[in-house]
From TrEMBL:
Listed name of the protein: Inositol 1,4,5-trisphosphate receptor
Molecular function GO terms recorded: monoatomic ion channel activity
Organism: Penaeus vannamei (Whiteleg shrimp)
Region of interest (Disordered), ranges: 543-576
A biological process term (GO) from this entry: calcium ion transport
Amino acid sequence: MVMVYTVAWRYLLAARYHIELVNLLAELTEGKNVYTEIKCHSLITLDDVVSIVTHPECIIEVKEAYINFLNHCYIDTEVEMKEIYNSHHIWSLFEKSFLVDMGRVATAPPDRRHADKALENYVINSLMNIITTFFNSPFSDQSQTIQKYLDEARDFWGQPYVQQYSSETRQPVFVQLLHHVYRVSQAVLGHQRVNVENCIKTLTEVARKHNISIPSDLEAQVVSMSQRTNIIMSRTATQWSKRATRRDASSTSLSGKMDHLVIEQDFHSVVSVLEAELRPLVTAELSVLVDILYQPHLLFRPDSEASIKCQNGGFISRLIRHCEVLLEEKDEKLCIQVLKTLKDMITDSEYGEKGDALRELLLNRYFDQWSKREAADYNTRQSPSQGDIVQRRSGKTLAEVQCDLAKKGAAVLVVDLVMKSQKCNRIFVEAVELGIALLENGNREIQDMLYNKLRESDKSQNFFKVFSTKMKEAVQEIRNTVTVNTSDISAKSSDDKDVQKDGDKLTRKKGVHKLNGLVMNDEIREELSAAASVTSQAYTNIRAGNTGDDNNLGISPLEEASDFGGRGNKEAAADNPKLSEKISVMEPVLRFLQLLCENHNLYLQNYLRDQRNKTNYNLVSETLMFLDCICGSTTGGLGLLGLYINEHNVSLINQTLATLTEYCQGPCHENQNCIAMHESNGLHIITALILSDINPLAKTRMDLVLELKNNASKLLLAIMESRADSENAERILQSMNIDQLLDVVCNLYHQESMDDDEFFDDGTAENEDGVSPREVGHNIYILCHQLAKHNKDLEDLLSKTGNDKYTKALRHYKENTAQIEIVRSDRTMEQIVFPIPEICKYLTNETKIRVYNTAERDEQASKVPDFFEKCEEMFREMQWQKKLKSQAVLSTISNYMSLWGRLLFILAVVINLIVAFFYPYTSQLPNVNSHVNGLLWVVLLIALAIVVTLPKKVFMYILGFLLIMRVIFSFGPEPALWLLGSANVLIKGVHLVSIMGNKGTFAKSFKQKVTDGELSYHVVYLVFCVLGLSVHPFCYSVLLFDVVYREETLLNVMRSVTRNGWSIILTAALALILVYLFSIIGYTFFNDDFLVDVPENVMDWDTIQKDIDEKVQEYVTNQLKPLTAEGTCEIGADCTEDEAKSFAKDVATDVIASLEDKSNLLIEVGDKKENACSSLLMCIVTTLNHGLRSGGGIGDILQPHSTNENYFVPRVIYDLLFFFIVIIIVLNLIFGVIIDTFADLRSEKQNSEEILKNSCFICGLKRASFDNKAVNFEDHIKREHNMWHYLYFYVQVNVKDPTEFTGPESYVYTLVREKDLNWFPRMRAMSLSIGETEGEVNDVRCLSVKLDLLKSLVDNLISQLTELKDAMSKQQKYRSRREILSTTSNYTQQYAAPAGPMDLIQQYQAT
């Protein structure tokens, strides 16, 4: 028996194992997975499924497993499985298995307690699901699934039944299937009929579509069931609608609100809650893949080959290379998923508490003891450079992750995919997005890598051709779309009117159309449309997070579904058209091009304009043309920007402006000229964005309009950046109206005030991520400031103070705008105008004064190095002061730090005056005449009235003094001193807190607090205040030394001693050595001469005896008489021995106490001579004490010698040497050092004051350099080289995002990080350079005039010389002819007859 059970148990386990294997295969094939489906076809064929399921002894669990496998592997597939649709297998299952099982369920007894639950669940869920899926499949419609050979039908149904159908049909099986499904629906309970009714509905639709004849009785039953279902649903919806209407009516008093608002609100809340709950979990689950890609070697055994390859980056490299293979094989989805994963490896996200818990759980499954490994790995990593943020997942900075992926081939992958994925838009977009992630924050290393890759491999032509083509396609698409939209505006309005009229007619005729109790008017349609849009977006986000699949351009399945919302949804879509695919792709493209030039990469800026190839693609010009087109310039709508700019394309326009700005900044003069001199309306479009109101977008989304104006102003500033000429500025001025420009600036300033009023009225705050109107107005004001240099009218308007509206706005912007001059690397000077950062207003005036007066000059007489070193300290003070403002009490105390210091000094003086005048204190009050007392009260009241009417410091001090006098005369000096001492301790505590608050001591470490000298001084001050109040009032005297700390003159006196303290110490040491030598000589040779007079005092015993007698008599008189009256003891009476001893003891005690206070008991009886050099130590002490204090040296106290004594001459030499060496030379050396040091300090102070008064703090130029110049010295140090403006610019480059830097800001930021001060102007100023340049131009002009005059003179001389030369040549020819004629005449006379005169004349004329 046991053996039978064992065998049965083994068979049961085998069956369970078999079922689980089939279920596993079914789960593997679930979804769209064509490769797994094809692989599973070879494991379980259709013949196997049919033979197992149709077996009469097959159990329900096996059937369910195989049916699920059949559904996922053969029917619900990605591609068509022709075998299931063109063969008899599925119909065999219908005939031999499905109909049998459904018949068993339909004929089951009505007693549900004995029903076969497994069979019912199998039929209701698995069978109904596979039948519905099979007939709903699109491949089912394409194949002849309903057709069947007549023989097969005849075998099953018999000859008579089949004659009513066609010769080749499967319709009998289909009809029988529908009949059995209907029977099942009648046999199951209501909540189990959902799948069954869906199956009946599907079969009915298939029968109607294929014209299948259904028996009339069966058709009537199906129709009746459908009607009952619709009635029940309608009745339920009506009841629910009534309840919702009653709830809405009870909760609100607005009768116009219908129950659809409740539906919409509840639905939105449900969707929001679901998204908020699921989004972090889905994102956290998907992020685990990125963690695995960061450390794939942990998946393998340590030191294995796979682990080593993965640790060296082999896995990521192969994954990147495989992405190109996927593109070639046209596996778009997997390629996109790989690109998304690579992009996720660069970004770092927050997942919340639940998301982090889920991540830890999943990571523990993949990695053993993940948290320990991760912590150990993080501890071994090197700390990043200052300012970089370490990503949580990778343990590296963003730049390190970007470079790591780029070195493994990600950068090359981006280039290749961009060129190869022109036909696949989704892959192109993902490739560009990956490039954006790699270049985020302007990674210069990756920029250089892409630049070298494009130049070396000659891929730039094809690479830039893709972007050029995309831009041209977008431009063409915009032209078509904008033309249609603008032409449809009038037609649409007329259509709306016609529709409204038709609707009114229908309403009058038929009343309002109702559906399920809801009034479907236009308002409801719009709200339902908005609800559908929000819901679609929410589901799209959740689905994208779950599956990682992308809907094309963000279009969700709900948006592609049937017309939910009906006509209203379509109308809403028509009113707010979204950008088409060709236009929307431009936003990531432009962002990618912007990041290529980020941080002012001049090589790539020029490369985008000119690739030096056979076919050049000027992306700078094409980007400008794209901006021109998207803003409507192609249709002539320069003044109608509101028709072209809407909520859908404003982000694209902003991105275009940002990209054009990055093209120009740096500066790149060629790109600036390309934009400014382009033949399109680009500049007009940019200026129109600033000047126009951009309605109707401004009425609903003013934040978008402000961002647009801000980016446009930045672009115009970038076009003029770092240019010495005025060509671009003049072109900008030609494209705008300066009066309108100032109106925009002032309106934005006052718009901020109106927004503030609305904020207090509505209680709503503005979005912190956007820009404020005043900030945008400030940027446009800086644009005006830069343009005013080239336009006199604009300069006059900026300085005009007529209109109050303009004056207030311009004064505000002027006070918050700074300008400095910097020196570029090529030693040219450039002026920078920038807004003063808000944090700079927290710099205290005390710090400004201290830095201004204490900045030290270096070897080159410049204060800039010391000032630059203090900039960081002042910046930290600003940050602390800003933080301090959030603490109201501490901020209030710190604001009056100087007041507390003055009060403390006054109290210290008053307290010491009271101590000096009234110590020791007496119990009696000071005697004051009644008239004086009354006069004091009158003066006190008068002083109080004056302080109330004229609250000045002098009157307040007088009132305080009178109050103190009144307290002294009324209560005595001791209570007044206690009151002032308590106030002193309290005010000093407040003063100490204010000092710590101003200096940020609370945020410093304990070591910094202890080593702070100023803090230690004030703590000691507080200690002496407490000691004076609690121990003795003489401690208050130490507080008077505060005058040394407060007064710079006394500090200089102290510095005169401490500055050259080492010299003084060495000189004093020399004096001690000399005193020691003289002491030895005196002790050796003149020991007997060290005699000093000491007074000798003896006791006056007579006085002592007299005092004792008086005390005894007083004691007897005052103490014993009362005792005698009482009868206890008297003189002469018999007293006991104890009483007598007690009496004697009391008398002695009182006498001794009285004698202790007597100071006249010692009397001086004469002087006594004492040897003060009994030992060498005493000799040294005497020489120091008397020798240095005596005017003539040690000789003044020594006994004089007679001239006849042997030691007379040595004694004279000894005295003279001590006097000259010690008294005259050494002591005067010490005094001279102190006096000279004090004189030097005074001279330095005067020199420093002279330098501060007559020299520029920044450049060091003297006041005389600006004499007879266009700019005087005061304007120079106030506007051109204001030292605090340089501090503000230092703060500007530290608080601003480096990716938002302009060219000069980027240049200065680089030098600031390197602590290079070459950007500060040294002995140079642009105003002087301009003057010198003008003088040189005048000299050149004069020289040019002189050269022109000289040239004209030379030309005249040349012409005269030419004429003279011609005349001389003619004369020479004439002479030569005469000589020839004379020679000829002589020859003729000799050998021929002489010629006549006429012959000679003819010869001459011929020659």
